[in-house]
Design brief:
Layout: E1 6-8, E2 18-22, E3 25-29, E4 55-56, E5 59-60, E6 85-89, H1 94-105, E7 109-114, H2 130-142, E8 147-151, H3 157-171, E9 176-179, H4 194-222, E10 225-230, H5 243-263, E11 268-275, H6 286-294, H7 306-313, H8 326-337, E12 348-351
Parallel strand pairs: 6-7, 6-9, 7-8, 9-10, 10-11, 11-12
Antiparallel strand pairs: 1-8, 2-3, 4-5
Helix pairs in contact: 1-2, 1-8, 3-4, 4-5, 6-7
Length: about 350
Protein backbone atom coordinates (compact mmCIF):
# COMPACT_ATOMS: atom_id res chain seq x y z
CA UNK A 1 0.00 0.00 0.00
CA UNK A 2 1.63 3.23 -1.11
CA UNK A 3 0.58 6.21 0.94
CA UNK A 4 2.25 9.53 0.35
CA UNK A 5 4.36 10.95 3.16
CA UNK A 6 3.67 14.63 3.65
CA UNK A 7 5.76 16.80 5.95
CA UNK A 8 3.80 19.40 7.87
CA UNK A 9 5.73 21.94 9.91
CA UNK A 10 3.55 23.70 12.41
CA UNK A 11 3.81 27.30 13.39
CA UNK A 12 5.87 28.18 16.43
CA UNK A 13 3.52 28.33 19.42
CA UNK A 14 3.24 31.25 21.75
CA UNK A 15 4.79 29.70 24.90
CA UNK A 16 3.06 32.20 27.14
CA UNK A 17 -0.52 31.45 26.07
CA UNK A 18 -1.58 27.89 26.53
CA UNK A 19 -4.98 26.76 27.72
CA UNK A 20 -5.87 23.24 28.73
CA UNK A 21 -9.10 21.46 29.51
CA UNK A 22 -9.21 19.55 32.77
CA UNK A 23 -12.18 17.21 33.13
CA UNK A 24 -14.37 19.48 31.05
CA UNK A 25 -13.47 22.74 32.80
CA UNK A 26 -11.20 25.20 31.03
CA UNK A 27 -7.98 26.04 32.87
CA UNK A 28 -5.80 28.83 31.65
CA UNK A 29 -2.18 27.79 31.22
CA UNK A 30 0.98 29.82 30.93
CA UNK A 31 4.48 28.72 30.10
CA UNK A 32 7.20 29.29 32.63
CA UNK A 33 10.21 31.07 31.16
CA UNK A 34 13.58 29.47 31.76
CA UNK A 35 15.14 31.27 34.69
CA UNK A 36 18.68 30.05 34.22
CA UNK A 37 20.96 29.53 31.25
CA UNK A 38 20.34 26.17 29.60
CA UNK A 39 17.06 25.53 31.40
CA UNK A 40 14.07 24.37 29.41
CA UNK A 41 10.99 26.53 29.02
CA UNK A 42 8.11 24.63 30.57
CA UNK A 43 4.37 25.01 30.11
CA UNK A 44 2.23 24.94 33.21
CA UNK A 45 1.67 21.25 34.01
CA UNK A 46 -1.28 19.74 32.20
CA UNK A 47 -2.03 16.36 30.72
CA UNK A 48 -0.72 16.00 27.18
CA UNK A 49 -4.16 14.95 25.97
CA UNK A 50 -6.11 17.64 27.81
CA UNK A 51 -6.85 19.68 24.70
CA UNK A 52 -10.42 18.35 24.80
CA UNK A 53 -12.69 17.38 27.71
CA UNK A 54 -12.18 13.87 29.08
CA UNK A 55 -15.67 12.68 28.29
CA UNK A 56 -17.34 9.75 26.57
CA UNK A 57 -20.87 10.34 25.30
CA UNK A 58 -21.19 13.29 27.68
CA UNK A 59 -19.99 11.33 30.71
CA UNK A 60 -16.78 12.45 32.46
CA UNK A 61 -13.92 9.94 32.31
CA UNK A 62 -12.26 9.43 35.72
CA UNK A 63 -8.50 9.58 36.14
CA UNK A 64 -6.17 8.58 38.98
CA UNK A 65 -5.76 11.01 41.89
CA UNK A 66 -2.52 12.97 42.02
CA UNK A 67 -0.93 10.69 44.62
CA UNK A 68 -1.48 7.65 42.40
CA UNK A 69 -0.23 9.09 39.13
CA UNK A 70 3.07 10.06 37.57
CA UNK A 71 1.37 13.39 36.93
CA UNK A 72 1.59 15.66 33.89
CA UNK A 73 4.75 16.01 31.82
CA UNK A 74 7.29 18.37 33.36
CA UNK A 75 11.02 18.94 32.88
CA UNK A 76 13.34 16.99 35.08
CA UNK A 77 11.04 14.17 36.13
CA UNK A 78 12.94 11.76 33.85
CA UNK A 79 16.51 11.38 32.69
CA UNK A 80 17.92 14.18 30.57
CA UNK A 81 17.87 13.79 26.78
CA UNK A 82 19.58 17.06 25.92
CA UNK A 83 20.95 17.04 22.39
CA UNK A 84 19.12 13.87 21.35
CA UNK A 85 17.01 13.51 18.21
CA UNK A 86 13.95 11.27 18.48
CA UNK A 87 11.38 9.88 16.06
CA UNK A 88 8.04 8.78 17.51
CA UNK A 89 5.32 7.02 15.50
CA UNK A 90 1.68 7.18 16.49
CA UNK A 91 2.47 10.59 17.93
CA UNK A 92 -0.76 12.43 17.13
CA UNK A 93 -2.33 11.58 20.48
CA UNK A 94 -2.38 9.21 23.43
CA UNK A 95 0.77 7.42 24.56
CA UNK A 96 2.67 8.44 21.42
CA UNK A 97 2.03 12.12 22.08
CA UNK A 98 2.91 11.78 25.77
CA UNK A 99 6.25 10.16 24.91
CA UNK A 100 7.04 12.76 22.25
CA UNK A 101 6.26 15.65 24.60
CA UNK A 102 8.07 14.01 27.54
CA UNK A 103 11.15 13.64 25.35
CA UNK A 104 10.98 17.35 24.52
CA UNK A 105 10.51 18.25 28.17
CA UNK A 106 13.77 16.44 28.86
CA UNK A 107 15.73 18.13 26.07
CA UNK A 108 15.21 16.15 22.85
CA UNK A 109 14.21 17.38 19.41
CA UNK A 110 11.29 15.25 18.24
CA UNK A 111 9.91 14.23 14.85
CA UNK A 112 6.27 13.22 15.32
CA UNK A 113 5.03 10.66 12.79
CA UNK A 114 1.42 9.59 12.35
CA UNK A 115 -0.92 8.61 9.54
CA UNK A 116 -3.29 11.24 10.99
CA UNK A 117 -6.22 9.73 9.15
CA UNK A 118 -8.07 6.53 8.31
CA UNK A 119 -6.16 3.29 8.89
CA UNK A 120 -8.66 0.45 8.59
CA UNK A 121 -12.24 -0.59 9.26
CA UNK A 122 -10.62 -2.98 11.75
CA UNK A 123 -10.34 -0.25 14.36
CA UNK A 124 -12.84 0.69 17.03
CA UNK A 125 -11.28 4.09 17.63
CA UNK A 126 -11.85 7.27 15.64
CA UNK A 127 -8.88 8.04 13.38
CA UNK A 128 -6.33 10.56 14.55
CA UNK A 129 -6.35 13.90 12.75
CA UNK A 130 -3.76 16.24 11.31
CA UNK A 131 -4.87 18.83 13.86
CA UNK A 132 -4.00 16.41 16.67
CA UNK A 133 -0.60 15.74 15.14
CA UNK A 134 0.06 19.47 14.88
CA UNK A 135 -0.98 19.89 18.52
CA UNK A 136 1.70 17.37 19.50
CA UNK A 137 4.31 19.45 17.69
CA UNK A 138 2.99 22.61 19.33
CA UNK A 139 3.52 21.02 22.73
CA UNK A 140 7.01 19.86 21.73
CA UNK A 141 7.97 23.36 20.63
CA UNK A 142 6.53 24.87 23.81
CA UNK A 143 9.50 23.26 25.59
CA UNK A 144 11.90 25.14 23.32
CA UNK A 145 12.80 22.10 21.23
CA UNK A 146 12.72 21.54 17.49
CA UNK A 147 9.59 19.71 16.44
CA UNK A 148 8.23 18.49 13.15
CA UNK A 149 5.19 16.49 12.04
CA UNK A 150 5.28 13.94 9.25
CA UNK A 151 2.22 12.12 7.94
CA UNK A 152 3.06 8.55 7.00
CA UNK A 153 1.67 5.03 7.13
CA UNK A 154 3.92 2.61 9.04
CA UNK A 155 2.79 -0.17 6.71
CA UNK A 156 4.71 1.63 3.95
CA UNK A 157 8.37 0.85 4.64
CA UNK A 158 9.52 2.95 1.69
CA UNK A 159 7.91 6.00 3.29
CA UNK A 160 9.63 5.22 6.60
CA UNK A 161 13.01 4.84 4.90
CA UNK A 162 12.55 8.22 3.25
CA UNK A 163 11.75 9.76 6.64
CA UNK A 164 14.92 8.20 8.08
CA UNK A 165 16.98 9.72 5.25
CA UNK A 166 15.33 13.12 5.70
CA UNK A 167 15.82 13.17 9.48
CA UNK A 168 19.53 12.36 9.21
CA UNK A 169 19.94 15.00 6.50
CA UNK A 170 18.05 17.68 8.47
CA UNK A 171 19.06 16.85 12.04
CA UNK A 172 22.38 15.07 11.55
CA UNK A 173 21.46 11.86 13.38
CA UNK A 174 18.73 9.71 14.92
CA UNK A 175 19.30 8.81 18.57
CA UNK A 176 15.91 7.40 19.54
CA UNK A 177 13.06 5.69 17.72
CA UNK A 178 9.74 4.84 19.37
CA UNK A 179 7.32 2.52 17.56
CA UNK A 180 3.93 3.30 19.09
CA UNK A 181 1.40 3.41 16.24
CA UNK A 182 -1.35 0.81 16.70
CA UNK A 183 -5.01 0.00 16.15
CA UNK A 184 -7.30 -2.23 18.18
CA UNK A 185 -10.25 -4.36 17.09
CA UNK A 186 -12.86 -5.97 19.33
CA UNK A 187 -14.43 -8.89 17.49
CA UNK A 188 -14.86 -12.58 18.43
CA UNK A 189 -12.67 -14.94 16.41
CA UNK A 190 -15.67 -16.74 14.94
CA UNK A 191 -17.28 -13.49 13.80
CA UNK A 192 -14.34 -11.45 12.51
CA UNK A 193 -13.82 -10.55 8.90
CA UNK A 194 -10.44 -11.21 7.29
CA UNK A 195 -9.58 -7.54 7.75
CA UNK A 196 -10.26 -7.75 11.50
CA UNK A 197 -7.29 -10.08 11.74
CA UNK A 198 -5.06 -9.07 8.83
CA UNK A 199 -5.17 -5.29 9.24
CA UNK A 200 -4.43 -5.32 12.97
CA UNK A 201 -1.44 -7.63 12.48
CA UNK A 202 -0.27 -5.65 9.45
CA UNK A 203 -0.41 -2.29 11.21
CA UNK A 204 0.72 -3.24 14.72
CA UNK A 205 3.24 -6.03 14.20
CA UNK A 206 4.40 -5.54 10.62
CA UNK A 207 4.35 -1.76 11.07
CA UNK A 208 6.57 -2.03 14.15
CA UNK A 209 8.95 -4.31 12.25
CA UNK A 210 8.98 -1.84 9.36
CA UNK A 211 9.87 0.96 11.78
CA UNK A 212 12.84 -0.97 13.14
CA UNK A 213 13.98 -2.08 9.67
CA UNK A 214 13.75 1.47 8.31
CA UNK A 215 15.54 3.34 11.12
CA UNK A 216 17.98 0.80 12.57
CA UNK A 217 20.41 1.08 9.62
CA UNK A 218 20.98 4.74 10.51
CA UNK A 219 21.78 3.74 14.08
CA UNK A 220 24.07 0.95 12.91
CA UNK A 221 26.04 3.52 10.91
CA UNK A 222 26.28 5.69 14.04
CA UNK A 223 26.99 2.64 16.25
CA UNK A 224 24.55 3.84 18.87
CA UNK A 225 20.83 4.24 19.34
CA UNK A 226 17.75 3.50 21.38
CA UNK A 227 14.74 1.67 19.97
CA UNK A 228 11.59 1.45 22.09
CA UNK A 229 8.53 -0.53 21.02
CA UNK A 230 5.10 -0.39 22.60
CA UNK A 231 3.49 -3.70 23.51
CA UNK A 232 0.56 -4.15 25.92
CA UNK A 233 -0.51 -6.26 28.86
CA UNK A 234 -2.91 -7.72 26.31
CA UNK A 235 0.21 -9.07 24.66
CA UNK A 236 1.13 -10.88 27.87
CA UNK A 237 -2.13 -12.81 28.11
CA UNK A 238 -5.15 -13.64 26.00
CA UNK A 239 -7.99 -11.18 25.56
CA UNK A 240 -11.54 -12.29 24.93
CA UNK A 241 -12.87 -10.81 21.68
CA UNK A 242 -9.54 -9.07 20.86
CA UNK A 243 -7.35 -11.92 19.61
CA UNK A 244 -5.80 -9.97 16.74
CA UNK A 245 -4.66 -7.18 19.06
CA UNK A 246 -3.26 -9.57 21.69
CA UNK A 247 -1.46 -11.58 19.00
CA UNK A 248 0.08 -8.44 17.49
CA UNK A 249 1.32 -7.21 20.85
CA UNK A 250 2.70 -10.64 21.81
CA UNK A 251 4.53 -10.72 18.47
CA UNK A 252 6.06 -7.32 19.21
CA UNK A 253 7.75 -8.78 22.30
CA UNK A 254 9.37 -11.54 20.25
CA UNK A 255 10.39 -8.97 17.65
CA UNK A 256 11.92 -6.75 20.34
CA UNK A 257 14.00 -9.54 21.88
CA UNK A 258 15.22 -10.72 18.48
CA UNK A 259 16.19 -7.17 17.47
CA UNK A 260 18.02 -6.71 20.79
CA UNK A 261 20.11 -9.81 20.06
CA UNK A 262 20.95 -8.64 16.54
CA UNK A 263 21.60 -4.95 17.18
CA UNK A 264 23.45 -5.04 20.48
CA UNK A 265 26.86 -5.37 18.84
CA UNK A 266 26.27 -1.95 17.23
CA UNK A 267 25.60 -0.21 20.55
CA UNK A 268 21.84 -0.17 19.95
CA UNK A 269 19.42 -1.09 22.72
CA UNK A 270 15.92 -2.40 21.99
CA UNK A 271 13.30 -2.52 24.73
CA UNK A 272 9.53 -2.68 25.16
CA UNK A 273 7.23 -0.56 27.26
CA UNK A 274 4.13 -2.52 28.28
CA UNK A 275 1.22 -0.33 29.37
CA UNK A 276 -1.79 -1.58 31.24
CA UNK A 277 -5.19 -0.12 30.49
CA UNK A 278 -4.67 3.54 29.56
CA UNK A 279 -7.25 6.24 28.90
CA UNK A 280 -6.66 7.10 25.24
CA UNK A 281 -8.72 7.39 22.09
CA UNK A 282 -7.73 3.79 21.39
CA UNK A 283 -9.68 2.67 24.46
CA UNK A 284 -12.20 5.45 25.12
CA UNK A 285 -15.33 3.94 23.66
CA UNK A 286 -18.27 1.96 25.02
CA UNK A 287 -17.13 -1.48 23.89
CA UNK A 288 -13.88 -1.13 25.81
CA UNK A 289 -15.75 -0.04 28.93
CA UNK A 290 -17.97 -3.11 28.68
CA UNK A 291 -15.00 -5.41 28.20
CA UNK A 292 -13.12 -3.90 31.15
CA UNK A 293 -16.12 -4.53 33.39
CA UNK A 294 -16.60 -8.06 32.08
CA UNK A 295 -12.95 -8.84 32.86
CA UNK A 296 -13.73 -8.28 36.55
CA UNK A 297 -16.48 -10.92 36.44
CA UNK A 298 -19.30 -8.37 36.46
CA UNK A 299 -22.03 -8.18 33.87
CA UNK A 300 -21.82 -4.70 32.36
CA UNK A 301 -24.98 -2.67 31.75
CA UNK A 302 -26.07 -2.13 28.18
CA UNK A 303 -24.47 1.33 28.07
CA UNK A 304 -21.84 1.60 30.82
CA UNK A 305 -20.54 5.00 31.82
CA UNK A 306 -16.83 5.68 32.34
CA UNK A 307 -17.49 6.06 36.09
CA UNK A 308 -19.20 2.66 36.27
CA UNK A 309 -16.27 1.04 34.47
CA UNK A 310 -13.77 2.77 36.76
CA UNK A 311 -15.66 1.75 39.89
CA UNK A 312 -15.84 -1.83 38.66
CA UNK A 313 -12.18 -2.18 37.71
CA UNK A 314 -10.34 -0.07 40.30
CA UNK A 315 -10.80 -2.48 43.24
CA UNK A 316 -9.12 -5.25 41.21
CA UNK A 317 -5.94 -3.21 40.58
CA UNK A 318 -3.31 -3.06 43.35
CA UNK A 319 -2.99 0.73 43.16
CA UNK A 320 -6.80 1.02 43.03
CA UNK A 321 -7.06 2.93 39.77
CA UNK A 322 -9.42 2.03 36.95
CA UNK A 323 -6.82 2.95 34.34
CA UNK A 324 -3.73 5.03 33.79
CA UNK A 325 -3.07 8.19 31.79
CA UNK A 326 -0.72 8.44 28.77
CA UNK A 327 1.77 10.53 30.72
CA UNK A 328 1.97 7.81 33.37
CA UNK A 329 3.63 5.70 30.66
CA UNK A 330 6.04 8.18 29.11
CA UNK A 331 8.60 8.46 31.97
CA UNK A 332 9.55 4.81 31.41
CA UNK A 333 10.25 5.61 27.76
CA UNK A 334 12.44 8.56 28.77
CA UNK A 335 14.56 6.33 30.98
CA UNK A 336 14.97 3.70 28.25
CA UNK A 337 15.93 6.45 25.78
CA UNK A 338 18.53 7.95 28.11
CA UNK A 339 22.23 7.29 28.65
CA UNK A 340 21.27 5.87 32.06
CA UNK A 341 19.78 2.83 30.29
CA UNK A 342 23.00 1.94 28.43
CA UNK A 343 22.97 -1.60 29.84
CA UNK A 344 19.25 -2.22 29.42
CA UNK A 345 18.23 -4.14 26.30
CA UNK A 346 15.83 -6.93 25.46
CA UNK A 347 13.77 -5.86 28.48
CA UNK A 348 10.07 -5.40 29.15
CA UNK A 349 9.05 -2.43 31.29
CA UNK A 350 5.48 -2.78 32.54
CA UNK A 351 3.55 0.31 33.65
CA UNK A 352 0.20 -1.03 34.76
CA UNK A 353 -0.87 0.33 38.14
CA UNK A 354 -0.21 -3.13 39.51
CA UNK A 355 -1.84 -5.42 36.95
CA UNK A 356 1.65 -6.86 36.41
CA UNK A 357 1.40 -8.50 39.83
CA UNK A 358 -1.36 -10.77 38.49
CA UNK A 359 0.68 -11.89 35.52
CA UNK A 360 2.90 -14.97 35.55
Amino acid sequence: MAIESVTQKTAEPDPFSRSLVFGGSLAAGAALAAATSGALAAPVPGRTDDTEPRVLDGQPVPEPPANLSAGPVRPGRGSQLTGKVAVVTGAARGIGRAIAVEFAANGADVIAVDIAGFVSTASNAKPATLEELEETVRQIKAYGRRGESIRADIRDIAALRKIADDVVRNYGKIDIVVADAAIQRWMPLLEMQDSDWRDVIDNNLNGTANTIRAFAPKMVAQRHGRIIVLSSMQGKHGTKDAASYSASKWGILGLMKSAALELGEYGITVNAVIPGLVDTALTRYEKRLSESMAETGQKPPEHPTPQQAWDSRAPTVPLKVGWLQPDDISPAAVFLASDAAAMVTGAEYEVTGGDSAKDI
